[in-house]
Amino acid sequence: MKKEKKDESLKKRDKKYSGLQKRKAIAGYLFISPFIIGFLLFMLKPLFESLYMSFCEVTIGPGFVNKSWIGLKNYYDAFRTDPDYLVNLTDVLPQMVLYSIGIIVFSFFVSLLLNQEFKARGLVRAVFFLPVIMSSGVILGLEENNSLMAQIADTVETAVANINITDVLQEVLETAGVGTRAYRWVFEIIDNIYDIATASGIQIIIFISGLQSISSSMYEAADIEGCTKWESLWKITFPMVSSIFLVNWIYTVVDFSMRSDNDVMQKIDKVMVGELRYGPASAMAWCYFLIVTVFIGITSFFISKVVYYNDEK
Amino acid sequence: MTKSNKVEFKKYGTYWERNRASGGYLLRHDIGEVFVKFVRFILLFGMCFLILQPVLNKISVSFMEQQDLYNPIVVSIPLHFTGENYKIAAKIMSYGESLKNSIIISITIAILQTVMCTIVGYGFSRFKFPLKNLWFACVMALIIVPPQAFSTSLVIHFYNFDIFGIIKAIKGAPINLRGGVVPYYLMSATCMGLKNGLYIYLVRQFFRNIPVDLEEAAYIDGCGMFKTFVRIMVPQSKPIVTSCFLFSLVWQWTDGFYSKLFIGGKKLVSTSLASIADALGVYVARELGAANAQTGVSSQYTNCILSTGTLLVVLPVVVVYLIAQKAFVESISSTGIKM
């Protein structure tokens, strides 16, 4: 009897709050309305058109686009008939996982370094920002074809080839014969540290802006309580930037998998622009997006388990 | 106890005596600090060199005369120093004009995108409303699907632009939005620009980490929702807004995809850099006459001009970064919240 009364009073309170909740819902819609309008106007149709194309035989002539529905044939062809697609996929996906982890660890480490106080910090940060510019837009495509730069890089490389420490270390470890596969992965990351450093410019900036928003009073309190730097890294810094970790992880995976110099993307580009077979290209692209999306979904589900948000109280 | 320590501290003047008084702690602490500084210096120096090396190569090549490029002995220090490459690169890119266009378009687009994405990101972070997850899934789709994937459809879509047949009903025919700058501004204003999904997500994550207490206090004091956002949340989000602005500026600055699609008529630094090799061929043929044109331009020289052009394109953005990054440092002092 008493409980029912309580329930009733709770219901009443809910009703009382529902006015504010309603207002908040309307305000929320107003805030995101630009996005909704844009998505409906500009994205929905092209997206569905591209999806529709993947089920079609597309012929393009001067001034007309002809699509005829052929069902799942493009998808079947992509996996069973096309000689390269499956090979490219199985090549790229493990690489994606490996590099994304490497980039995240590297950029977190660097952003911790760059967030400390030292001389010429602004300059060093600018240097780490350079790869963002150098690997974006038109510059990336132009750099790949620059034979003069490749030639200079080769000259420099041959000059220092005799003093390659990682090679020696790798040989020593491999002759020891313990867990060679794990070593190989680590060494692949180390050998391609340049690629990783240039790919992590964005992530470093995102991490720094996350680190900057942590209130210094938290560190002070921890310091007074006798917390070491190492402990406060794991107990304060890590939870506070964990939400940023999630963004960075998703961005890194997407960035790596959608780079134009990636094997699968090049294959899709070849089929689409080179051979003008829009249907199969769309099918390949949508399969690839689906795989990447599922991968992102699964990993970010596990990451979001440990993400700490300040608004969930 | 503390008082006697203080007295001792004053008595022992030199470093070693102070060290002995602290039981060796002072020395250990200082050695540790020097060690950390040293390791940090080595690491940062190495990584900076790694990143800078290709850029340094470009700088040295850009000052070389043509004969140095063919000389195998010359690697990184030019034998015949010249500034001629910069003159030629600037001339064939029509640097002055394209720089002006690029500055105007990039800055306006970047500001527009940053503002809109901050608003939308805030909406996603703080409000509960029906279908929120569906719309957020759309944001994720925007992040994951690259623009190249639907570029063909987008072009056709803009060629006969229509909103569910409404325009056709009014004007009789769909309108052609291609070739103008207006549709691109429209897309930026509705968060559909280059990588805008990322900015929305970034801003959302950032706002979710700011405690709600401050907003609630503002609501109780009678501050409206939008006013709260502008007056209280935006000043706190300076670092993230700065990064969004920087990203969109850089990506717009070097972007060739949307620029070709929408702003094809205007000269931009990105598009003129992309076509610099062809432009150089035309320029050389015109300058040297038809006789020399047949031999053409060597690939080394083309790449040398290309590197020079790249430096010219990159330089303004670096300057902007050096100015903008002050916001990262200032943000700590300006945040009003203490947790």
What is the structure about, briefly put?
The complex is a heterodimer of chains A (313) and B (339). Chain A has 313 residues and is mostly helical. Chain A contains 14 helices and two strands.
Sheet with the most strands of chain A?
2 strands, antiparallel
Q: Write down the overall mean pLDDT of chain B.
A: 80
Helix content class of chain A: over 70%
Total DSSP helices of chain A: 14
Topology, number of strands of chain B: 0
Q: Ranges of chain A with pLDDT <50 over ≥5 residues?
A: none
Shape of chain B: flat
For the record, the count of structural domains of chain B works out to: 2
| Ends apart, CA distance between termini of chain B | 34 Å
Largest interface: A-B, 96 and 109 residues
CATH class of the largest domain in chain B: Mainly Alpha
Fraction in beta strands of chain A: under 5%
How would you write the strand order of the largest sheet of chain A? Answer: 1-2
The domain tally of chain A reads: 2
CATH superfamily of the largest domain in chain A: MetI-like
- The CATH superfamily of the largest domain in chain B is MetI-like
Gyration radius of chain A, in Å:
26 Å
Q: Write the CATH architecture name of the largest domain in chain A.
A: Orthogonal Bundle
Give me the secondary-structure topology.
The complex is a heterodimer of chains A (about 325) and B (about 350).
Chain A: H1 2-53, E1 56-61, E2 64-69, H2 73-81, H3 85-114, H4 121-134, H5 137-144, H6 147-160, H7 165-176, H8 180-191, H9 193-199, H10 201-212, H11 216-224, H12 229-257, H13 263-274, H14 278-306
Antiparallel strand pairs in A: 1-2
Helix pairs in contact in A: 2-14, 3-10, 3-12, 4-10, 7-8, 10-12, 12-14, 13-14
Chain B: H1 2-11, H2 15-21, H3 25-62, H4 66-70, H5 84-92, H6 95-126, H7 132-144, H8 151-159, H9 166-171, H10 182-189, H11 196-208, H12 213-220, H13 225-236, H14 238-254, H15 257-262, H16 269-274, H17 276-288, H18 290-293, H19 299-324, H20 326-334
Helix pairs in contact in B: 3-19, 5-19, 6-11, 6-14, 7-11, 11-14, 12-13, 14-19, 17-19
